[in-house]
Specification:
The protein has 446 residues and is mainly alpha-helical. 79% of the residues lie in helices and 0% in strands. The longest helix has 42 residues. It holds the Pfam family SNF.
């Protein structure tokens, strides 16, 4: 058991798991959804959905992972009691492994852009202007994608306590420090007050808007890195004496906190940009979002505040690189854990081999960007992830024996049987979560 490695501390696991959940989507996806869906009304429904939907699925992954001490394929096969469910477990685990490889492939390209913009901002502080860094090109995309994946592989090759935990404990507090400093700075700029109003003043007429609810459910589910086995694999490294429901709640709270803090930074920053003459609305009147926001609106804002703008830009893109790295290491760990557990390949060899494999997939996307980039994102995040989340709920709610789940939870809490968690979670993950995820999937198809 110890040969697999374990997180050495509770805070180490929480920061690593929260780092997995905290990614680029928290920084650029959540704030724009807030602005487009009634400000604080969306924040309120997001908080509710995070605990009504995402937290129960998160717990399913953590419990399965710790119980079986294995990668996704072996863990799902291990909780199955008959041949049909074992085959389904292998198929689900294999799809999860394949999905996470393709997610990391496109994710590393975007993360490479963040590194390029970070270097650009840093060099601009010294009056060095290198246009190549911010111009879309195959050499630029390829170079920084490779650099980012090498960083990811380096961290994962170090193991659990000396690699993933060690760097998560350093990177996550740094992420929080940068985001808080930037919030304080932006809040004192002209125009920030309007942004705070857009973010915090609720439009309660929209609280029960079906589109808002669907967006809130989707953001809550996907922001916690669920469905592809990252939390299941991290769960397999948790010590036996930990209280899993409390541990899972801590991860959910940190992830939600980063998303809310990101909104406190991005929305006021957009209105500061508008005050400085930068266009923040599209022709249809919607707020500019996602890649246009990160690579056009905010750099244009930084450019309007001279030397201080370069410092702020450097800090902001450092934040984005950290958020990307804490997520990517958890993604790479999913297939690495499989090679280590099932094939007996050393961690360092597995890390190098899989880093190279992801590089090949990423390079294929880079050279065929127009045809593959959006297609890969759609297939993995819009279709594969919800289906995997649905099947994980079926395994936790219907395939795995209830007494086995209870016995696993008792390792960290002898009195779990009388708790509210045990009274609600088993039937909730059995009936409610699959129904809601199925509805979300239907809605995305429609």
């Amino acid at each position: 058991m110890s040969a697999r490695g374990e997180f050495s501390s509770r805070i180490g696991f929480v920061l690593a798991a929260a780092g997995s959940a905290v990614g680029l989507g928290n920084i650029w996806g959540f704030p724009t959804k807030v602005a487009e869906n009634g400000g604080a009304a969306f924040v309120l429904m997001y908080l509710i959905m995070a605990f009504l939907l995402a937290y129960p699925v998160l717990m399913a992954e953590l419990i399965i992972g710790r119980a079986k001490r294995a990668n996704m394929i072996d863990a799902l096969r291990g909780i199955s009691s008959n041949k049909a469910s074992k085959v389904a477990g292998v198929m689900t685990g294999s799809l999860g492994l394949l999905t996470v490889v393709f997610i990391l492939a496109f994710y590393s390209i975007v993360a490479g852009w963040m590194i390029a913009f970070f270097i650009d901002a840093a060099t601009n502080m010294f009056s060095l202007n290198i246009p190549w860094l911010t111009e879309f090109s195959i050499p630029r995309n390829l170079s920084f994608m490779i650099l980012f994946l090498c960083l990811t592989g380096y961290v994962v090759s170090g193991g659990i306590s000396n690699g993933i935990e060690k760097w998560s404990v350093r990177l996550m507090p740094t992420l929080f420090a940068i985001i808080i400093i930037l919030i304080i700075y932006v809040s004192f700029q002209d125009g920030a007050l309007e942004g705070w109003k857009a973010y915090l003043v609720p439009d309660f007429n929209r609280v029960l808007d079906p589109d808002l609810l669907i967006d809130a459910m989707g953001q809550a589910f996907f922001s916690m890195s669920l469905g592809v086995g990252t939390m299941l694999v991290y769960g397999s490294y948790i010590q036996r004496n930990e209280n899993l429901p409390k541990l899972g709640a801590s991860v959910a709270l940190v992830d939600i906190g980063v998303a809310v803090f990101a909104g406190m930074l991005i929305i006021p920053a957009m209105y500061v940009a508008a005050n400085n003459g930068v266009q923040i609305f599209t022709e249809t009147g919607a707020l500019i979002s996602e890649d246009s926001l990160i690579f056009q609106v905010l750099p244009a804002l930084f450019a309007t505040i001279d030397l201080v703008g370069f410092v702020v830009a450097t800090a902001f893109f450092a934040l984005m690189v950290i958020a990307a790295l804490t997520s990517s290491i958890s993604m790479l760990e999913v297939p690495v854990a499989y090679l280590v557990d099932s094939k007996g390949i050393s961690r360092k060899k597995s890390s190098v081999l899989l880093t190279f494999c992801v590089m090949l997939v990423s390079a294929l996307i880079v050279f065929n960007f127009e045809a593959l980039f959006v297609l890969v994102i759609t297939l993995t995040t819009k279709y594969s992830q919800p289906l995997l989340g649905f099947v994980l709920c079926i395994f936790a709610g219907w395939v795995w024996r209830r007494n086995d789940i209870l016995n696993e939870l008792k390792h960290g809490n002898d009195n779990i049987e009388g708790s509210w968690f045990w009274r609600i979670w088993p039937w909730y993950v059995r009936f409610v979560c699959p129904a809601v995820i199925a509805f979300m999937f239907y809605r995305s198809l429609a």
